[in-house]
Amino acid sequence: MATNITWHDGHVARADRERHLNQRGVTLWFTGLSGSGKSTIATALERELLHKHQKATYVLDGDNIRHGLNSDLGFGQADREENIRRIGEVCSLFTDAGIIVLAAFVSPYKQDRDKVRTLLKGGKRSSFIEIYVQASVGTCEERDPKGLYKRARAGEIPNFTGISAPFEAPENAEVVLNSGEKTVGECVAQLMQYLTDGGYLSAK
Q: How far, in Å, CA of 177 to CA of 38, rounded?
């Protein structure tokens, strides 16, 4: 980091933005294998929050981010780490803006997820909610919506999580969604209940 820079504080605090939006800024971090349903559940939750509850929310999707901000990164361990570091910083900005962030990333390494948790730690409520979208490799491979597992099995995609690269499952996730057994609607309902019970859908 450069040494000739200074943090500039504004005149509007996070609490002011949260009161204006009548919600708490928070990052819901969806982690799980490719094909487990992370983005499908996140986008369904986004629709529920915006259209039925008038909450300001935004989905950050792993593939979408790699089209722009992280288009210079590959899938080796070092690049995966940098991918999550950058996304963590983006989530921190969105959360400070009072937005309910829905971040859907494979994020296979516990250490990388924990760094984002530490970055977003603070306040009476946690600003980081880890959501483990749990589905077996077999289930994800059977779904294979993008044909990635087939290509990985054929050796066409190196460092593919669950096949030729590891996935470190969360040990203490705030929410576990068994997407192998539950419908998308049931998963969304579970998350809505968590956000309601945690006081995230009101600034009071």
A: 10
Whose tokens are 């996140």? That residue is 42
pLDDT tens for each residue of 41-76 = 999 999 999 999 999 999 999 889 999 999 999 888
* HSE-up (13 A, CA, CB side) for residue 50: 13
- CA-only gyration radius of the chain, Å: 17
The residues that are catalytic are 107
Has this prediction a pTM greater than 0.90?
yes
Rounded distance between C-alpha atoms, residue 38 and residue 102, angstroms: 10
- Inter-axis angle of helices 38-47 and 184-197, to 10 degrees? 60
Kindly report the number of other CB atoms within 10 A of residue 148's CB atom: 19
Lookup result for tokens 């983005």: 39
